[in-house]
UniProtKB/TrEMBL annotation, chains A, B:
Subunit text: Monomer and homodimer.
Species: Phyllostomus discolor (pale spear-nosed bat)
SUPFAM superfamilies in the record: Nudix
Domain Nudix hydrolase: 138-269
Entry's EC annotation: 3.6.1.-
Pfam families: NUDIX, Nudix_hydro
Keywords carried by this UniProt record: Cytoplasm, Hydrolase, Mitochondrion, Nucleus
UniProt-listed InterPro entries: Nudix_hydrolase, NUDIX_hydrolase-like_dom_sf, Nudix_hydrolase6-like, NUDIX_hydrolase_CS, NUDIX_hydrolase_dom, Pre-Nudix
Claim: Repeat is one of the keywords in the record: no
Gene Ontology cellular-component annotations: mitochondrion; nucleus
Gene3D superfamilies in the cross-refs: 3.40.630.30, 4.10.80.100, Nucleoside Triphosphate Pyrophosphohydrolase
Localization (cell): Cytoplasm; Nucleus; Mitochondrion
Free-text function comment from the UniProt entry: May contribute to the regulation of cell proliferation.
Protein name stated in the entry: Nucleoside diphosphate-linked moiety X motif 6
Length: 313, 313
């Protein structure tokens, strides 16, 4: 087995190309306290894991005691060997406390792929032509709740604090990691207004790029139809200036509402008068083919004659 | 003006609290080549920019010549002052070649917010209670093209390379940064199959969390209805094993297709037989209220009686 081929999800260790002796002793492995002051200067190699796309990943340990110059030499020799072996990409996973090793890697052409909390991931494309490496998440997801009371014909709207224009809008906010969009709508409506509600359907989707509130990334904004379960408004003083139940038909034509709010109001008016099946995208839960993880799928409700019997999906 | 208050988008400079003398000379400012070897050890402060949410941002220059220990002392003193002044958060923007300054910041509690290409952003929450800082992008966006030929009743499908199961699926792939979802569908269909097409509508949306192909982030998968403009299939050999025009009704019941592909086929069958207005979400372009940037909005087409006259939107 080549030093570059290590099965499973091993923590990166350092090995000399021929005899697998550690290039830089791990903390505690040197017999004395602290780091070795004079790491070997031979051209060591980094041990990585191959992925099925022809890339190689190196995971640095949070407690490894690494010298930046020796690391750079080892990385340079490793990159050379990975290229010779036809690897198309190198991935470097760096714990935040090992960030002193990032600049040496950058000097060899590595760049940030992403970073979050305690860890950064850097990549270097080794294949031919431009990089074909997958990017990182490109969108934040915000969800608004259109809470409509069919009995009174009124809809719940708010005005944000800290805005230059005081326009009526639907309560809503950013999805938490791992949160289904309907749950985001219900949670945000409650946090901003104190109104409890239940998810009914997805009404619309907006895609907007270079979003100022998304660190330059794209924004996906979804509007859900919610059924109110309580009506008393208790505004969040940090986020909202005003909150109200407004007549739906009035809001649909109100210049004091944002364009997307008026549009959502018109969709709801259409649904309220002619049946919500005209505007709703309903949610279904299905298992992913390769992982078995469940996902939520939203589209127009299929009439029974286009559905398959339960279990035959 | 406090040393922490600097208008505009200034590059961070280092200033002593009282006399604005630089704590660490910039490269070239010391009169000699390279870095100062003995930076002043006094408790300097970092100069940052205030944002309207009560946070303060420090931008390190790519060429600043900074000593890690002096930086840590200055950052610690600055954090103390920001806390006293009631700042709720600190943001640290670090060029990749200055990554040696990340670990000293991490030792003071800073963590990665995000990183991309040549730059990392770290944050420290200074306010009360749990952090209320906005997260970074949480979703990758993939788009599939359902290219349906109304004349023959056939739909374009492919089988991926490198999958454990060879199932028919719609061609598609990840959105490039800043790309509208309809454009992604058309581009991916062409790259994978050589078939040219035009965007017609959005058919469905899937949200899936902890996606293995998304570095643990969430995945938003959108299916678009496309109109074919060419029919000859020239498969991308890197991505596709097979490609074919299959009968839509057959695909809708085909166990050799992924569940989401069968579902999309049934939606198309419904539309093909009873009118695509039954299943389509059509796209509209609107200007954002606060920035004027254009965005795309997708929802059921509104009948004329629910629309407003052009220009009155």
């Amino acid at each position: 087995m080549s030093p570059l081929l290590s099965g499973g999800c091993l923590r990166a260790v350092w090995a000399r190309a021929r005899d697998a002796r550690l290039l830089v002793p791990h903390r505690g492995a040197s017999g004395g306290p602290g780091c070795a002051r004079d790491p070997p200067t031979g051209a060591g190699l980094l041990r990585g894991e191959l992925d099925r796309f022809g890339g190689v990943s190196v995971r640095l340990g949070a407690l490894d005691c690494l010298d930046a110059a020796a690391f750079q030499r080892a990385l340079q020799a490793s990159v050379q060997q990975w290229r010779s072996a036809g690897r198309v990409a190198a991935w470097l996973h760096v714990p935040i406390l090992q960030s002193a090793l990032i600049a040496p890697a950058a000097a060899l052409g590595f760049r940030f792929h992403h970073a979050e909390a305690d860890s950064a991931t850097l990549t270097l494309w080794l294949g031919e032509g431009p990089s074909r490496l997958p990017g990182y998440a490109t969108h934040q997801v915000g969800v608004a709740g259109a809470v409509f009371d069919e009995n009174t014909g009124k809809i719940l709207v708010v005005q944000d604090r800290n805005k230059s224009k005081n326009l009526w809008k639907l309560p809503g906010g950013l999805s938490e990691p791992g949160e289904d969009l309907g749950d985001t709508a219900v949670r945000e409506v409650f946090e901003e207004t104190g109104v409890r509600s239940e998810f009914r359907s997805l009404l619309s989707l907006r895609q907007q790029h270079r979003h100022p509130g998304a660190f330059g990334k794209s924004d996906m904004y979804l509007v859900c139809r919610l059924q109110p379960r309580s009506f008393a408004i208790r505004l969040c003083p940090h986020e909202c200036l005003r909150g109200a139940w407004l007549d739906l038909a009035t809001l649909a034509a109100d210049a004091g509402a944002t364009p997307i709010t008026r549009r959502a109001a018109r969709l709801l008016l259409y649904g309220h008068r002619e049946g919500f099946d005209k505007v709703d995208l309903t949610a279904d839960t299905l298992p992913a083919v390769h992982t078995g993880l469940l996902y939520k799928l939203y589209h127009r409700e299929l009439p029974g004659r286009y559905k398959v019997p339960a279990g035959a999906e």
